[in-house]
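Hi team, as promised in this morning's meeting, here are the two structures we talked about. I've kept the exact order from the run log so nobody has to guess. The first one is mostly here for context; it's the second one we should focus on when we meet again. Sequence first, then the predicted structure tokens.
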Amino acid sequence: MKMRYDVVVLGGGAAGMGAVKGAKDLDASVLLIEREPFTGGVLNQCIHTGFGLQVFKMELTGPEYHEFYRNKIGKFDALYETMVLNIDFDENKIKAMNSEGIHEIEYGALVLATGARERPFEALRVPGTRPAGIFTAGLAQKFVNLENHLPGHRAVIIGSGDIGMIMARRLFLEGVKIEGVYEIMPYPGGLTRNVAQCLEDFNIPLHLSTSVVKIHGKRRLEGVTVAKFENNSPVEGSERFIECDTLVASVGLIPENDLVKGKIEIGPDEGIFVDDLMRTNYENVFACGNNVCIHDLVDFTTTEGEVAGRNAAMVAKRESLPPRAGIIIAGSGIRILSIHYTTATEPFKLYVRVDKPMEIATVNVNDKPVKAAVNARPSEMIELTLNPQKIDLKGKIIVSAKGVKK
């Protein structure tokens, strides 16, 4: 089946829905392609609160946020349970497949909103067997919240990412014994509010500079050995065995960009490089959300999606966008940037992450301070508003952070 749309959006999560709305607001014809049978992405399994504070000015659960935003969009064309097989960026064509057959879709502009995937436990290369009972945090969340199945009765959480801490609380409330959360770094990997609300409020212990070094069990997990770590190496003699039947790994997310590797400019952290218009190295291809960089809040990804969708609609309608005028480079103290190029035309949001904890961090643009952050940590984004009327955003722009190390 052959189709033609002004804007095609790949991915129906929070960023993808934002892109659909942004394009629809400019009266562009829009097609959403989603591999699940519904929109929402991970929102559907996130039944905890904490969503919508930026977009709706109220605290919502994930499914509530999804429903509220879906109602804002209204009707639109979509292909669900559909996998994209190939994208021809030169011919502006997509080949996708579902139960109805092969679809050839021509687009005026394309928005990539493919989100992120969990880093698997195997990436940690922990020695031992691989019995039943080892889950990523997102899979455990899906089992409990959507499938109504408990993964086990006695759990260890490896990694202190946000989903891991949220699942520690969720499993505790379902009667699972949580032996502890073990984080290899000397600081938590998630938001401060989740450390307080998910762990401290329920007396769930958080062990920093500690991780799993061996798996025990054949058919079902019987326990793990944990050890203290210094300089990313286990401390000899610090090992101890913990009996458990469930291991939940919350060790980070990876931007989902396998489909476009080698064609779209991607950084060493697997995120797509975009400018302040959310435009990639192709004039009519945009990206937004967690496939650009891993965001703290869903609200941020939705807002980015709206920007990408509006600009994609403008390109599809043959309106010219300003060229790139500057390149943003991560300087000392900065680990992640959400945007790498600027057109130096309109104010925009730039999200950064520091590379180490700092009690007070001063974020600088070309050595000029633009924002101070208290208790800055790599796990928490710092939001900057860059205005070309106040800061020179042409040429080479170096973003750095200086502060007192914690």
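And here is the second protein, the one for discussion:
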Amino acid sequence: MVDWAGAYPAAMTMFDREGRVDEDATAAHVDRLVREGVQGVVAAGTSGEFVLLDADERIRVVRAALAGAAGRVPVIAGTGAAATHETIALTERAAAEGAVGAIVILPYYLKPTEAEVIGHFRAVGAASPIPVMVYNNPANSAAPALEPPALAALYGDGLVVSVKSTFPTVHQVHELRALTDEHFRVFYGSFMAPLEGMAGGAHGWISGILNVAARDAVELYAAMQDADLPRARAAWARILPIKLLWTRSQLGPVSDISMYRAIMRLRGQVAGYCRAPVLELTADQVGRLRAVLEPLGLLDVA
């Protein structure tokens, strides 16, 4: 059983100018997120660019996140890989470093069948020395989503304890809460409708946007816990302009990670650099970013 709940940033990995993992900068970034009030951190997830990291680098990122968190909040390590044996090995290594849980993406790219996806999680859950969160993200993995009954069955068999439900819709949250008890932790995992996700029963929110909206995400979670809808709407309204920059392509075709780095850089925060093939924003794009966010006070640092 776990008590994971709240705002959990999918923490970004910091690279230096040559594209090498910068462990000190990664730790400093996680330290800032914790000081801004987040209740947990996901390391080496999608926004941590795990697909651009080799196995040793992923463990280094987890180690850096643990150093930055310094025991103040739980650190959940991204250990999912396309191969079951590699996922198990990464999970064991992350556990040895001190991660309290593993977030495991659907086995990706080869378009596995539903039975293969379920078999993957059964094997990983049975072998894992730490609790497993299913990263239910079919859009990015080309794997079938695990439907609520399948997740409930995995939970009932003691193989998984949580899910990051990464869909623009929230009905999956409602259905999971109806099929499981309070000990199964449901996190809304998109940046499209976190308020609605938590209203539907999600125990928290995991997203890359929290790298640049941690305080407001913590406030959104707290307001929903207090059933204070106007306060929650106000918190979400402060995050919304950042989301719209990407969903409405206001800067053109850019990576959300590049956009977050630019925002942090404009705020004078540790931002690191992009690792190829991801590109930095151009000077023109940074100027447009500033023009949108500065008048709203979203580049100010408290």
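Starting points for discussion:
Residues 109 and 154 are 23 Å apart (CA to CA).
The chain has twelve helices and eight strands.
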